[in-house]
Amino acid sequence: MANALQFSQCSGNYPNPVNVSILPDPPIFGQPVEVFISIMAYTTVEVGAYVDIQVNNPDWVFPFTFQQDIFGSKTLTVNIKARLVNPDNTILSCIDGSVTIQAPVSQK
């Protein structure tokens, strides 16, 4: 599978563009995943700014641990939206997209 991370800037006008990468890419079931997020700060990120992350997968309840028996080829796709927000609720950056995890093929 090629790049499992498919993120783009949200629709709208946000002053600070974002780049996202993950290791390993694609993610592998049962292994840790590191997410790297960087921004180009054209507008000041103030003390007290926060990241609002929304994850859309109807099978998950937060806090969560995802556990599933996998036999054969299976993928898991999660939709994610992340926004960098200043304390005055100004949204500085916004990305949305999906992460797809491919399970290894298991032999029964």
Offer a few descriptive terms.
108 residues; mainly beta; four-stranded antiparallel sheet; 6 strands; elongated
Mean pLDDT rating: 77
Termini separation: 23 Å
Low-confidence stretches: none
The SSE order reads: EEEEEE
Structural class: mainly beta
Number of helices, where a helix is a run of at least 4 consecutive DSSP H or I residues: 0
Shape summary: elongated
Q: Strand order across the biggest sheet? A: 1-6-5-4
Specify the CATH class: Mainly Beta
CATH-defined architecture: Sandwich
CATH topology, what is it called?
Answer: Immunoglobulin-like
Task: Please give the share of residues in helix.
Answer: under 10%
- Estimated share of beta-strand residues: 35-45%
How many E-type strands? 6
- Summed up, the domain count is 1
- Note the main sheet: 4 strands, antiparallel
Organism: Rhizophagus irregularis (strain DAOM 197198w)
Protein name: MD-2-related lipid-recognition domain-containing protein
Domain MD-2-related lipid-recognition: 5-65
InterPro entries: ML_dom
